[in-house]
Q: What sequence folds into this?
């Protein structure tokens, strides 16, 4: 069917409606694609990936923060010279930061490789300053490493995402009510 035939079939206002609908759905579809864990190493079951996607989408909608998890079976061939040159800590930090910048992640980014075994967690500066601190980042990494060493990959992923959500919720709660004054026992009484 040609464009002209489509126009005749649905009319000009129908095309306008279709274009508007398409423009509304594209950002939502792109956002949903970001919510999926990119599990190149095959650590997680389909059920865990579905649950993780749901958790990530809820975090994005509630707290306007991105969560991205990428796994690799090993360091990609084109990056191995960089690993040898820079050393493991600098290499993983740089790799994670490049990936996060490329994808536009504003929140928490988790990069995992099977060989060498590594869990690297990064948090953008705005999120780290206000909602998910370095201590939280380290706790998330340690929890993932512990679960993965026990070969509990699915549970580690889900528990890790729940931890991120809890921390963001705690921050959000503090922001909404930074402190509620408590009445003193020796203060004035209010008679009904």
A:
């Amino acid at each position: 069917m040609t464009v002209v035939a489509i126009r005749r079939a649905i009319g000009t206002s129908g095309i306008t409606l279709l274009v508007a609908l398409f423009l509304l759905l594209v950002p939502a579809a792109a956002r949903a694609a970001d919510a999926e864990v990119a599990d190149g190493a095959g650590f997680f079951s389909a059920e865990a990936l579905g649950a993780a996607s749901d958790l990530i989408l809820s975090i994005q909608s509630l707290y306007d923060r991105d969560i991205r998890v990428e796994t690799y079976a090993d360091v990609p061939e084109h990056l191995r010279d960089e690993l040898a040159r820079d050393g493991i800590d600098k290499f993983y930090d740089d790799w994670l930061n490049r990936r996060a910048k490329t994808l536009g992640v504003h929140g928490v980014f988790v990069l995992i490789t099977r060989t060498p075994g590594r869990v690297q967690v990064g948090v953008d500066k705005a999120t780290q300053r206000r909602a998910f601190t370095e201590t939280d980042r380290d706790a998330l990494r340690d929890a993932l490493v512990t679960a993965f060493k026990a070969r509990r990959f699915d549970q580690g992923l889900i528990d890790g995402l729940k931890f991120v959500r809890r921390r963001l919720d705690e921050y959000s709660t503090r922001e909404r009510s930074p402190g509620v004054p408590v009445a003193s026992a020796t203060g004035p009484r209010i008679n009904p």
Summary: The two ends are 77 Å apart (CA to CA). The chain has one domain: 33-171. The longest helix spans residues 3-34.
